[in-house]
Amino acid sequence: MRRIIAALFFSLLAVTPAARAAPRDAEPKVIIADIYDALIKEQNRPAADEGPAYNPPDDLYTPALAQAFKDEDRDRGDELGRLDFFFWVNGQDWQLSGVEIEQRTVWRRPDRRVVTVAFRNFEQESLLAFYFQKIGGRWLIDDVESIDVVEGEEGYDWTLSLILKYAREEP
């Protein structure tokens, strides 16, 4: 019996790091650092490991952004939809390196923060700005913006809320 309990305990420990998340009252920089750490662990996971892929928590968004995601899910049905890339890595696949995270306050708004994340995904440099708002004692993502595109390079600048609402034309 002790062996069964020990096996269950150690199996729970084995999955705990993948499920680890920043505390609900953590500062925005901590939340973002935790997500990017998990994304890097995911990219370095052995190919033979068939466990579930990491996805950032979906309870990190303000009500307005959460509603935009729900509308996108409803509208797309079985199709690709307006959001056709993984915004966290500014691409569809990722091999992240050189991740640097900074946080700043917003003038006269103690309930707002901006977190910037600079990284290289494969060969492309990216800089994302995460706009946070404190609601009910929690820091929630209100929007995300790509602010790094250099003219002549692949990619484009974008704002997540606008993609979710307006990105695709009717076929």
Give short descriptive properties of this protein.
alpha+beta, 4 helices, 171 residues, single chain, 5-stranded antiparallel β-sheet
Structure description:
- There is one protein chain.
- With 171 residues, the chain is an alpha+beta fold.
- The protein has 4 helices and 5 strands; from the N terminus they run H-H-H-E-E-E-E-E-H.
- A 5-stranded antiparallel β-sheet has the order 1-2-3-4-5.
- It is globular, with a radius of gyration of 18 Å.
- It starts with a helix and ends in a 5-residue tail after the last helix.
- Mean pLDDT is 84; it is low at 1-19.
Q: How would you summarize what this structure contains?
A:
By secondary structure, the protein is an alpha+beta fold. The protein has helices spanning 2-19, 28-43, 63-76, 160-166, and strands at 96-106, 109-121, 124-135, 138-146, 158-159. A 5-stranded antiparallel beta sheet has the order 1-2-3-4-5.
